[in-house]
């Protein structure tokens, strides 16, 4: 029996931090048919609030260290301000949105990252997705909107990377749905030349990715992102797209399509 | 056909602000059988965060004025910090909790209060409950945990009194369920003598309430609370209890039972 389609879309700071772009995106998202899930990052709100409260943002290797105070800031801004603003706007556009952290409905279980050479603090690595319950929630007509906060089911909330949340939901829900995962970001897709906005690689397979990686055409920050994509495809996700938010209104717009 | 039972419990600052009391209450709440909904106030977090951010708390007639900055503080603390802390703890105690504002699932619709002699700002008066959807959410096995933020379905979040949220949910869901509404607060119930903790009025009917009101035994702050209770009973709520949080573990503990 063929499974129903589910589209999971991740948006980051570039969408969240600009009211007009967010509004446009959420209108387009509301028009999308079928089951869908939105995952959002935090944008600049957390850094802004931390600054106002005099809490220092400590970054190690480009990652935020989440101490107790910073976790509270993340919960207030991601699960509070950003999530509820998005939910209220989606409701305005007649989408039956419901905002969630991984604690809500025990939907995303994680484990506090063990302290190695760096103590990242209250950061959670995802260990499980409550796929059956998320499916039953979708079947009530709701569109889940996830922020990047998870929990350990021992009462502790944990900060988690939003890309990883989207990927884990895609993998965890793939036994129940045909999943398309779309990462929206500021570029049009994976570029061969960072200085040329239109140098988009339109099709990436594991073979072509490995070739481009060897030739150093794809490098640095894009590598872990794409490694995660191929991992997700190997674990059952049907297809992945990396694109500008414009793709939601116009699925044929120039973008990167990734498949095995 | 008899309706299924649903218990709606409202807790306030006295429970939320004391970790041991909150933990005890949530454990007891987790043990309760049948459909249940938790509604919580904000406790002192909002005032504390506003203070840290240098935002002045303006009160008129004992009510907080909610300007744009204060609304953000309310959303961050009520929908973020307090709500998600409660949800994570309930999950620890194996309750399938899901945290909600009125925007989530369009569950509680409100209208911005019109400016009369006082402009209360972003304060919402409840105009509707999405009872069918809340019922379908309960049927997924979830236990909703509401904070006192609602929305106008035009994209605007609004601050709303938590007692009113509990009352409106009780009235709105009464066509679908047999509702018991329990207001938990720091006293054992409605007292005839504020200085005597045990002077609890165990049974209140509309007739006995009016008599006690005339004799000035019940007065001041208790009056609007009880008027709201009788209004809710007239609108279909089956019974209301005003009690200490202890009632959850021990239903026979001394408390006030209110019926028509």
Please describe what this structure looks like.
2 copies of one chain form a homodimer. Chain A has 260 residues and is α/β, with parallel strands linked by helices. Chain A has a domain at 13-24 and 40-160: Carbamate kinase (3-Layer(aba) Sandwich). In chain A, 35% of the residues lie in helices and 23% in strands. Chain A has 8 helices and 14 strands. Chain A has helices spanning 13-16, 19-31, 45-52, 68-92, 131-138, 162-173, 206-214, 222-234, and strands at 4-11, 35-40, 59-60, 63-64, 97-100, 108-112, 124-129, 143-146, 149-151, 157-159, 177-184, 203-204, 239-243, 256-258. An 8-stranded mixed sheet of chain A has the order 5-8-2-1-11-13-14-12, with helices on both faces. In chain A, helix 3 (45-52) packs across helix 4 and helix 6 packs parallel to helix 8. The longest helix of chain A has 25 residues, at 68-92. Chain A is globular and about 45 Å long. Chain A starts with a strand and ends with a strand.
Secondary structure category of chain A:
alpha/beta
- Would you tell me which CATH topology of the domain at 13-24 and 40-160 in chain A applies? Carbamate kinase
Biggest β-sheet of chain A, characterized?
8 strands, mixed
Q: Kindly state the percentage of residues in helix of chain A.
A: 25-40%
The CATH architecture term of the domain at 13-24 and 40-160 in chain A is: 3-Layer(aba) Sandwich
Uncertain stretches of 5 or more adjacent residues of chain A? none
CATH C-level class of the domain at 13-24 and 40-160 in chain A is Alpha Beta
Global morphology of chain A: globular
How many individual helices of chain A? 8
CATH superfamily of the domain at 13-24 and 40-160 in chain A: Acetylglutamate kinase-like
The chain pair with the largest interface is: A-B, 42 and 42 residues
């Amino acid at each position: 029996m063929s499974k129903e389609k589910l589209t999971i879309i991740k948006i980051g700071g570039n969408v969240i931090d600009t009211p007009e772009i967010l509004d446009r995106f959420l209108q387009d998202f509301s028009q999308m048919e079928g089951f869908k899930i939105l995952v959002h990052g935090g944008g600049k709100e957390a850094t802004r609030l931390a600054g106002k409260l005099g809490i220092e943002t400590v970054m190690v290797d480009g990652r935020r260290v989440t101490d107790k105070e910073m976790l509270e800031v993340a919960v207030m801004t991601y699960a509070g301000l950003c999530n509820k603003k998005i939910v209220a706007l989606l409701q305005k556009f007649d989408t039956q949105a419901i905002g969630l952290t991984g604690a809500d409905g025990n939907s995303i279980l994680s484990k506090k990252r063990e302290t190695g050479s760096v103590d990242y603090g209250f950061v959670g690595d995802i260990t499980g997705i409550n796929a059956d319950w998320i499916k039953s929630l979708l079947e009530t007509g709701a569109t889940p909107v996830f922020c990047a906060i998870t929990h350990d089911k021992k009462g502790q909330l944990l900060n988690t990377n939003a890309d990883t949340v989207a990927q884990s939901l895609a993998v965890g829900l793939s036994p129940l749905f045909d999943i398309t995962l779309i990462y929206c970001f500021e570029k049009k897709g994976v570029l061969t030349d960072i200085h040329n906005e239109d140098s988009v690689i339109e099709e990436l397979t594991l073979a072509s990715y490995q070739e481009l990686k060897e030739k150093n055409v794809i490098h640095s920050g894009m590598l872990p992102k794409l490694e995660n994509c191929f991992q997700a495809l190997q674990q059952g996700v049907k297809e992945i797209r990396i694109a500008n938010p414009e793709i939601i209104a116009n699925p044929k717009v120039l973008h990167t399509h990734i498949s095995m």
